[in-house]
TrEMBL record:
Transmembrane segments: none annotated. GO terms for molecular function: ATP binding; ATP hydrolysis activity. This is Peptide/nickel transport system ATP-binding protein. It is a peripheral membrane protein. GO terms for cellular component: plasma membrane.
Amino acid sequence: MPLLDVRDLVVEFPTRHGTLTAVDSVSFTVDKGERLGIVGESGAGKSVAAFAILNLLSRPGRIGGGSITFEGRDLTKLNRQQMRSVRGNRISMIFQDPMMTLNPVLTIGTQMVETLKAHRDISDAEAKRIAIARLGEVKIPSPENRMASYPHELSGGMRQRVVIAIALLTEPALIIADEPTTALDVTIQAEIMSLMLALCKTHGVGLILITHDLAVVSQVTQRVVVLYAGRVVETGQTARVVHDPVHPYTRGLLAALPGEGTPGARLNQIRGGMPSLNAIPEGCAFHPRCDFVQDRCRAAVPPLDDFDGHRVRCVRADDLIAGAAA
């Protein structure tokens, strides 16, 4: 049984003009200790899917269908108190901006001790000992002294290390990291991702990494899910998806990486933009931006076909795999 099994998840936002579907029948699994990447542009539905797992959807957002089974329990059926025993305890989340996560008026130590005591019946002294140990694990120098620091006294990279330490406090089975390095410079990004990878391996923690950067995904994850307009368009082993992408959208994301362009030339880009939720095209949602579009692409939503464990939602998948598409 997978650690996490998301099946046919639908997330909706009712509005006065009708119900908008942000996540449309998305399915994926995460095994114990496995690292899964969820990739796509802004508006693809990555973060909404993650928030649905932890029941953190902002109103009027709601789960409109499907199931989210974690450690044998369907999280969509838990009440608020039962969900508190999972959120921040068995499943931790790391958000984009640590300054939005950390309380600016409380010391790092106070926040870490309070987090532990909210989920465990332990003394202040034991909670402090665990907190200092976790700060040391994330390579924060002089962790005993940093316990007395306030968030604004730390650099962006140090704040994100603190957030990672907090995520590990309760020894969770799964961590969801929502673009955890977006606000950091490139060298610090690499350090943070390397640290997260090492910690997940050391603790045997499952990881869902949400990002728009396939280069990061290729270095950290074992499997990847590519989302477009709320639907899965390609999924499989990370190495296979990155080295042999099939869906035109995945190909476009990879071609847009800086290393794929000609030095001195403009970067490659996918023409157009992600459709808004109230204007998702009929058929394949990607067809207005696709270089391989045919009339049948506009007719109906393609199925997610399986090619020996590599699943692709494209009516021209066979042609693209064979290199015969034009």
